[in-house]
Amino acid sequence: MMVDLGSFSEENFDPKKWINSACQSRHPQDPLDKHLGDLEMKLQMMSEEIAASLEEQSAAAHLRVPRATRDANRLLEDALSLRSSVASILQNIKKAEGYSAECITTLAKLDTVKRRMEAAYETLQDAAGLTQLSSTVEDVFASGDLPHAAETLANMRHCLSAVGDVAEFANVRKQLEVLEDRLDNMVQPRLTDALSNRKVDVAQDLRGILIRIGRYKSLEQHYTKVHLKPIKQLWEDFGSRQQVNKLASEKNEVERLSSIHDVQSSLPTKSFSSWLPSFYDELLLYLEQEWKWCMLAFPDDYKILVPKLLIETMVAIGGSFVAHVNIATGDAVPETKSLAKGILDVLSGDMPKGVKVQTKHLEALIELHNMTGSFAKNTQHLFSESDLRVLLDTLKAVYLPYESFKQKYGQMERVILSAEIAEIDLRGAVTRGVGGQGIELSETVRRMEESIPQVIVLLEAAVERCINFTGGSEADELILALDDIMLQYISVLNENLKSLRAVCGVDVTADGGGSKKELGSDKNEGASTARKGDSISNEEEWSIVQGALQILTVADCLTSRSSVFEASLRATLARLSTNMSLSVFGSSIDQNQSHVSDDDGNGRLSMAGRGALDMAGLRLLDVPEKARKLFNLLEQSKDPRFHALPIASQRVAAFADAVNEHVYDVLISKVRQCFSDVSRLPIWSLVEEPSAFSLPSFSSYPQSYVTSVGEYLLTLPQQLEPLAEGISNTDANADEGQFFAAEWMFKVAEGATALYTDQLRGIQFITDRGAQQVSVDIEYLSNVLSALSMPIPPVLATFHSCLSTPRDQLKDIVKSDSGNQLDLPTANLVCKMRRVNLE
């Protein structure tokens, strides 16, 4: 049996627990007393062994204590000795440091004197050399050795910089500038010949001469001048053809122009839009050839020289380019083509009346812009090794002719969209003869509903044109234009709605004196609407109701389509925000450096950054204020609560409210007409006439005014059913259609009840006979409301209870109710009508 001694060293050692545990580990067949005896014996033996070992180790440790004490004392003495030595060494170092500082100061002064003496010596040498060079430079020029002359002038420039602003050498400085100009002029003819005849070695030597005298700009200017001439000739070729065709068409004198026609017979008549791609192709081919040749002739400068050539080319032909683009856009429309005018001329207003910017004008402009865009992409690929600043300047120069058009983009879209909406058939409704109002309503509503998708298509086309032409950089102007156009369109719809109100006969109300007032001005006063004729048949009346209900589809269509369009526009703006941020901020340029943040380590834009360059980003780099406003707008578009067309959205909601109001007025018009004079009916004040027979004092049947309203309300669900079915054309919308019908049925029934209770409140005095009659009328109307599943208003129920109660019992009923079942103000009013004193 093994004994674990580890448990005896634990702080929470429990002897009883240890003994119990030891007993549980014994073999079941061993007697307990024998097991405990063995355990006690083993513990005693182990205790004796531990005691013996402890005694032995204690004795050994006691013997080692004197030796350890002697070692500690020796280490202490060594530490004190070492500390004294280190202090002596530090003192010697401080003394050496002071002496060394004095020596170093002396050496520094000597070195300064030496350097100044050497500078003075070199300056004297440069001054002597400058004098010698100034005296021999004419001989060098006379020898015709241009490299030697360049070296001489470079040495003179170096000597002048060393001498500084010494008055004695002022004339030499002027002489140097004259000599550099002279050498530059001597180089130019030879450089022209080398560039024209592709002489690589000669061109390199001449470039070295210009670089040596600091005339690199002269190399750029001369290279551009030599190669700009054939490119301009290529551009002017189209102008010459157009001029010949113009002279021939204007004068029509074959004899005088026969020689010109003979010369130009091989020049077919060609429009600018069809000629421009060929010009770009030839120009790109020319630039590619120059790029390859300059790589050999000017390996350090070709990345700048060839792009500079294209920039200067676009600057030289820029004005003519804009004029040709302007005329080309005018050729797309016969009216402007006959006048030889373009889109800029139309926008200026200096055109005959009726000539406006059309979609074809802008489409022609976009087509030309796309041609330039293809050329710009090819150019970007060709100049991909150039620095970003050079590449951006080049692409901006390529797009520069379209800048004047882009600045007027918002104006163009306004004119185009306004004219396109004006072409849509949006005639308002006109009053027809008897039987024709329903047809007129249906036709007008049909035109309004069909116009909505047409307008949305026009707006979507405008968004696409903006992206195609400006890349989205004019998105802020586009939104303003779209908002204005939507307002214009909704204004037309509102005018049509007004015409529909006139046809439906709900545009005017009649007061007691017969004067006409605007609808709604006397709603709270209980005035009723009068139709434009009392001869309208029941069938015609229901056709007007059906036509009015169809207007709801116009409001629903406008709301849904405008909401979808606005959501699409918001998504487009959010997409533009991402793309343009990559283009502008992903390749933002440090104005003092020629590299960007996302370069490839050599000051050149990485391929990922170069792919982000587009026309929108190029424009915004030069207009930071516009870029800031545009990006604020695009950032806001990411918020789902953002309204791309804020004012138009409000007007759409207002139009929907106006349509609902109009439909309600039409549906309630019949009720208003029937209830118009209920409060003034003579039957309410009739007194029971004496009779020898026992006759009822009132009619047991409801009167015609309330039966007409009841029949109208019971028939109304049939009129709402077609429109509800149109809404619930699918199973998914079945509940929506039923809810729509129930909602309008409830509105009309509630309005009818309100009108009726207003008329009842207007009764000044009512006899018992009148009270019994009106209670029958109220009961009939209540049955109609119940049949339509409409709740009976407490006010109407109070009228019925109080009017059906005998006059002598009315006071007791009102006093006993205390507002539990009766509407007390109404009950008090009935008591006043029936002359019952509640006090």
Automatic annotation (TrEMBL):
Pfam families: COG7. The keyword Protein transport applies. Its main location: Golgi. GO terms for cellular component: Golgi membrane. It is found in: Golgi apparatus membrane. Residues 514-525 have a biased composition (Basic and acidic residues). One of its GO terms (biological process) is protein transport. The keyword Methyltransferase does not apply. InterPro entries: COG7. Signal peptide: none annotated. Belongs to the COG7 family. This is Conserved oligomeric Golgi complex subunit 7. The lineage of its organism: Eukaryota, Viridiplantae, Streptophyta, Embryophyta, Tracheophyta.
